[in-house]
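This part of the workshop introduces the protein records we will be handling. Getting from the letters to the tokens is the skill we practise here. The record below serves as our worked example for the rest of this section.

…
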Amino acid sequence: MRKRALLALALVGPWAACTPEPPCAAGRGRMARTAAAPYAGRWQVAHGDTLTLPQMGDRFKLASITLDTTSLAVGGTCRFRGHLVFAAPRAETLAVLWAGGPDQALISGWPADLGPFGGLGVSLAADSLRGALLFDSRVGIAVTPGVTAQFVARRVPPQ
């Protein structure tokens, strides 16, 4: 019985050592969660620019952001789930993915039909979350250099 266990370990051991660790597991997952932890939670937009793109005609206004630490492996990296709630052009909640780092978190993943948005870049400033809209040039809508939509959000206390 012991010989079989050793033989099985000898056969599986090298294979297991060569397979890459899933991005959200063990050490890599802990590092990703630690970097993301300060951003996690529900954020209410206290002040935000509205953005109107001439090609689209719609005015966009972000109402709130929820950043969860439920992880998901995407393309070899660890991402977390979240939601963006828009007040305009229509009340809509979009599921997004995000990753946090020491200086900023990047939020992405909304549908291309919503507009030329590549995501949000956010950073912590005291008790606030400050962010700006990032544009995706691959969508094909030309955005004048310098056009931005910035916002400041406050953490919503847990209930």
Notes: The two ends are 56 Å apart (CA to CA). The chain has two helices and nine strands. The first helix runs from residue 2 to 18.
